[in-house]
Amino acid sequence: MKYFKYIAIILIGNVFFSCSDFLEPVPSSSITTDNYYSNADELETGLIGVYAAIKGINSNSKNDNHGVQWEFYVTEMRSDNTSTKSPDSEDASDAGQLESLNVLPTNNFVGNYYTSYFQAIYRANVVLANIGVVEDATAANKIEAEAKFLRAYAYFNLVRLFGDLPLIDRVISPSETEVQFTRVDKSIIYDLIVSDLLTAVNYLDLPYKTRASKVAAQALLAKVYLSLDTPEYAKAQVLCEEIINSNKYALQNNFHDVFYSERSNEIIFVIGYNSNVQDNSQIFSAEFMNAVGNTSGVNYVTTDAVAAIDANGGNRIADSYRPDPLTLFGGTVRYQVAKFFPDGETGGSDGQTFTGLPQLAGNDFIVLRYADVLLMESEAILAGGTETSNTKAIDAYMKVRVRAGFDAATDRPSKLTKEALLLERRVEFAFENHRLFDLIRFGEAPSKLSVFASASGFNFSTTDLLLPIPQNEINLSKGVMKQNAGYN
Question: How many CB atoms lie within 10 A of CB 226?
């Protein structure tokens, strides 16, 4: 992250252990949580470690935790938005499973994401366990709030992908294997997420972009309320309107600037990266490029998504996808994601010529931005219905549409439908890892993914909406942890 000192990230990575590491003895030479933390500054390095777990390690090794850098595999690639280049090839077999909705519990991308985010949860718990070393109550409250925001963010992603999960809300000992591996109902996980984010809303106040802020907590909590089995629409609307009425955020005039003029006033929370620093850059931008990344192009845009963007994207089309230059002459044309060209470089006419190293890209990964808040307000007002004539809902929707080049008067609908709102979210947030979660939240995943899967020659079942618990976790639990339905 641009905000953090690299040495601190390296230090913190050597101090902590992942969830599955609890079964192993801790080396006596390690710095422990009992003797390392003694003041607020040292707890700050602990917070850095939580962010480091989320941002992931920039490498091609399957043994490294990649965090958000591999998130597109378990989200976009399981929707109707993206696919991999060669799903049947040996090096793409795990990606091919995700694209074809035929995921095995041994899938490396699934296991890597699970481990990465439980590592973030563990590190947040370590910080929370040591809050007592901070004598100043105000400082202690802010550190607690930031750690809880990050724990909530990690758990929110995990619970939407895996369903019921172990409740790890404190540092557990190596002997507490039942706590580590017993899955509790997801409603209990959501209770923790809501509680953590309420704390974050109460005590965070600094206007960060690459770290937790009050507004980031409000926006994330609004999305959590919309994602509950029984959504809290009114609470989500209040949170969105508090952000809107603060007048601290606004849409960028140019859609391109959202992604390449970073940390603008549209941005609420990002995972930040720096260019040309191995431990502080990201590799996913290169992975999307053919013959530039390690896998010769992944996360290609589906023709279904291309058609949706062409018909509804307005001026967002050029910054959403482009034909892969290496597929233009002979064979089938494939389409690349255009929101994450490494450091804004397109790679020239062949998509391969970069002045810098695309594997050391500095593009931030956007988690929350103002357009999302506007469309969440519309969603909250729609409140699960099929349409609404509410002026606020239509106004918020139209702000995003007008930025995309649509006319404020002639293109304004008299009623906003659920279908139109879901489509707008698809084209506005294409390839930002929202699509699968949006389909599930709107109750449209079974119907739309069934149609898409059938057209693609895949088989879809509602059990595919959850990922399998990684087989390694099942094995380590010695029968305690149960697998999700639909997986052997």
Answer: 24
